[in-house]
């Protein structure tokens, strides 16, 4: 799931022509942390995800579409 | 935003007739923490949000729909 979130963020950032440092700054995080999120090696906090989404002119909900593989639910 | 996420979770839980302890257990968290999430006094981590969504037979993306008030984006 982390990889998919990272990919969605990265694809959107590239489509907007933003650099990682520019996005990191707008999302009030560090370039290093932003790189790890995009690489799928870190989950952003929900608050950071909201800030990333806003900086990418989208929503956290949009960034998470299709990220979850079908998981078991309470019977 | 926290209130809206909590409300979405609570509405969905009630629609499925689940108790807070039952949902908390399925989402591998505590009843107390689940109560705070629903009350909007705590943000779940992204991982916990995924587990809550799975336990509610929905997705994190769905639970976050409409949660964000329009925020500034990078110009």
Automatic annotation (TrEMBL), chains A, B:
Return the Pfam families for the record. Answer: HTH_31 (PF13560)
Question: Domain HTH cro/C1-type: where?
Answer: 9-63
For this protein, the record's SUPFAM superfamilies field holds:
lambda repressor-like DNA-binding domains
Q: Which UniProt keywords apply?
A: DNA-binding
SMART domains annotated for this entry?
A: HTH_XRE
Q: What is this protein called?
A: Helix-turn-helix transcriptional regulator
The organism is Actinomadura violacea
């Amino acid at each position: 799931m982390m990889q998919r979130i990272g990919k969605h963020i990265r694809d959107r950032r590239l489509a907007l022509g933003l650099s990682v440092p520019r996005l990191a700054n707008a999302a009030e995080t560090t370039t290093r942390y932003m790189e790890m999120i995009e690489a799928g090696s870190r989950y952003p906090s929900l608050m950071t995800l909201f800030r990333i989404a806003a900086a990418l002119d989208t929503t956290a909900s949009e960034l998470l579409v299709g990220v979850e593989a079908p998981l078991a639910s309470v019977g």
